[in-house]
């Protein structure tokens, strides 16, 4: 296969930083710069990291656990782990790779048993309607909601290995080589999991309109 | 690498379709695949289905949780520092255990009034803080000094009322959790949470004071400008009235 490995900078697209008043036009420091500042005793660097990573962490955990409250627990633990671990962070891997790996591991711990996952899927879709933010305009509202729930359920019911790859690729816009780095798997494995995940989804969603 | 096989081999061409749909193929692989697709109806149909699946995935949006990242970061830092703090002395533990149930209820109520949402997970309580006036609206409102004082009081009162109502149901569950813990576990949790609350409150009070001071300065400037404008107007009007006399 002739797919080139992208350069280090293009592996992970960092989340869009929140623009605050007075910061427009100013260069945002990289994650590694923020880590360095934190290690030098600058607590505000941690606040900047939370501002940057809070939303991606919560989104990833929500899509892997299927439950907003579980996702908030994961977010809390991931940020605590980050705060405790930053002083020892040596930069052998990029910070983005490291934090995604932490979140994935925490989500896996949360869902060790298949039974627990099935229970979460059912609970999250039937009882926690407000956890899914949907377009609520016009008479399409009910249909949109139903469609979103079916898609969410289909993704959540994928096997974990396929679900992780699909969520990182589709919802976090992460290229296959970057996913391979996070998972510690070969790129070919990541690609075949993606293909299998899409194939399973295609079958389950075959009757729906786009 | 030679990608000519894609021209004739449907199975290998289909293996590349996910990369094609997500724009991850190298130029030569993409060109070879496009050549294959031109002449292969089943693979084109497969591609169309994959694109439909990709569009359907966009339907699942996750909730946007409005949170102040700075407050969240400070509560995380405070929790980490509290974990590193030395264990409480035995004398204080014993004193606390006498009124544990009341202390737990009072602490949870205080947390709710302060806008801290408490959850029980992983064998301990976790706190999310959103103190009155510490929300994401960082822009100073265009109020005068008198309005500023009046409105800050009204906002604080409204937020406290709302949060007290919101927390009522959660409190029942949390209190139930408390009743399942041993006295020692509960007293340690209360001490830990109290330390977290003290640290976060102190840090947020400083942030709130700074913001309030800044708003007051802006309001004073606006008051001064208004008085200046009135003086200017008076100066302008006076000669005219003198002339009329």
Succession of helices and strands of chain A: HHHHHHHHH
The count of helical stretches of chain B stands at: 10
Return the average pLDDT of chain B rounded to an integer: 70
- Quaternary structure: heterodimer
Distance between termini of chain B?
A: 99 Å
Largest interface: A-B, 57 and 44 residues
Q: Helix coverage percent of residues of chain A?
A: 55-70%
Report the uncertain regions of chain A: 1-25, 119-139
The general outline of chain A is globular
Radius of gyration of chain B: 32 Å
Order of strands across the main sheet of chain B = 1-2
The rounded Rg of chain A comes to 18 Å
Beta-strand residue percentage of chain B: under 5%
Content-based structural category of chain A: mainly alpha
Give the helix level of chain B as a range of percent: over 70%
Please give the count of helices of chain A: 9
Report on this model:
The complex is a heterodimer of chains A (210) and B (245). Chain A has nine helices and no strands. The relative contact order of chain A is 0.11. The N terminus of chain A is likely disordered. Helices cover 63% and strands 0% of the residues of chain A. Chain A has 210 residues and is mostly helical. In chain A, helix 2 packs antiparallel against helix 3 and helix 4 crosses helix 8. Chain A is globular, with a radius of gyration of 18 Å. By secondary structure, chain B is mainly α. In chain B, 74% of the residues lie in helices and 5% in strands. Chain B contains ten helices and two strands; from the N terminus they run ααααααααββαα. A two-stranded antiparallel sheet of chain B has the order 1-2. In chain B, helix 8 packs antiparallel against helix 9. The longest helix of chain B has 62 residues. Chain B starts with a helix and ends with a helix. The relative contact order of chain B is 0.10. Chains A and B meet through helix 2, helix 3, helix 6, helix 7 and helix 9 of A and helix 3, helix 5 and helix 6 of B.
